[in-house]
Amino acid sequence: MPRLGFIGGGQLARMMIIAAKRLGAYCTVLDPDLNSPAGQLADAQIIGTYDDAQKLSELVSQCDVTTYDLENIETQALVELAEQGHTLHPAPQLLWVVQDKLRQKDRYREAGLPSAEYQAVPIPNEEAFAKFGYPLVQKACRGGYDGRGVAVMHSAEDFAKHLPVPSLVERFVPAKMELAVMVARRSDGESVCYDVVEMIVDSEHNVLDYHISPARISAALASKAQKVASEAVAALDGVGIFGVELFLTQDDAILINEIAPRTHNSGHHTIEACYVDQFEQHIRAILGLSLMGTAQHNAAVMINLLGQPGYGGAPLCTGLEQALALEGVSLHLYGKASTRPYRKMGHVTVLAETVEAAIEKADKVRSWVKIIGEETI
Predict the structure, then answer these.
(1) What angle do CA 303, 307, 309 make, to 5 degrees?
(2) With helix as H, strand as E and coil as C, how does 197-231 read?
């Protein structure tokens, strides 16, 4: 029985544990919350923070392979543990690169991979932004996720909303479409790609609202996106599964936006829509098991369930009866004890024979299912 460790006890680890159990694994989670979403399902949990070197050592010492639920964690202790002979996938050195957006962009450039023009701005200032030229996107080098750490600026007047942290500025891409590809890769270089996903982003909060799979693009563009995504993961020498976010430009170029070194929101639909989902594929990759086919047997739309504005406290889900009366609708709640505005609380996957039918059904579900809370704030 393989022993798997998970740093972080959020919803991604929770869904990885469900997949790992199908493969006969014993699962241990490190998380500061005793009632974490993944801790509820794990065989064992170590209570501790992600930067506690002693707790990290305790976890990896008990496990054959350790992986992550999140990437914004201190890597020095993990690097030392890897040097001692413990197996962590993806490698802590890769994590160190990807968790800093400037280092990540530098790696793309070194590998000759396509991405938007950028420049480092260690101390954000009006002169540097103006010299680079508007419109632009400011990205905090560290700590940004789910829309945090990003500021879109269309003109010099927008500098007032800049982030006062070490950053990079990136050329604003008026994308025709935002895409994502899930790529699984083993240590021997074998890799597989899932179908390209079309992402619909809430522009106000810069967070994924829902996604459509397969993306409504040509077969040639889909193949091009998968090739770029695979090359990006290979350039990182990645082991595990990676969410590669891409831009499709107005002239049909494919540019890398960012890479998440873990299971990813853009792959959640694979639980219902594919024979082997992203979570099992990740476990297979890090254990060195055979990777499985990624064929998608139905069109799918995945809807993020975010905490509604104005609510906090214990979550309440409305509209379930209507949604679950529709064929092909699957609900996933993450077991989080409290909600807050725009917090990811769950997702819904909608399957249908065609993309158009899935979108039509998903529009109904989106209008019905809401996460509110016991408290108003």
Answers:
(1) 120
(2) EEEEEECCCCEEEEEEECCCCCHHHHHHHHHHHHH
Distance, in Å, from the CA atom of 60 to the CA atom of 57, rounded to the nearest integer, reads 5
In three-state secondary structure terms, 330 is: strand
pLDDT at 147: 61
Query: pLDDT tens digit string along 194-209?
Result: 999 999 988 777 788 9
Residues with Cβ < 8 Å from 240, sequence gap 6 or more?
67, 89, 90, 184, 185, 261, 262, 282, 285, 286
CATH number of the 3-88 domain: 3.40.50.20
Question: What's the token pair of residue 120?
Answer: 């480092």
What is the Cα–Cα distance from 231 to 236, expressed in whole angstroms? 9
**Residues, the chain, total?**
377
Q: What is residue 265's DSSP assignment?
A: G
* Rounded Cα gap, residues 347 and 270, in angstroms: 12
Where along the chain do its domains lie?
A: 3-88, 117-171, 177-376
- pLDDT average, residue stretch 147-169: 93
Which of 306, 307, 323, 316 is closest to 364 using CA atoms? Answer: 323
Q: What is the pTM of this model?
A: 0.95
Q: What is the DSSP string of 159-190?
A: GGG--SSSEEEEE----SEEEEEEEEE-TTS-
Among 187, 143, 150, 193, residue whose Cα is nearest residue 168: 150
> pLDDT tens for residues 249-303?
999 999 999 999 999 999 999 999 999 999 999 999 999 999 999 999 999 999 9
CATH superfamily, domain 177-376, is ATP-grasp fold, B domain (3.30.470.20)
Q: Which CATH superfamily is domain 117-171 in?
A: ATP-grasp fold, A domain (3.30.1490.20)
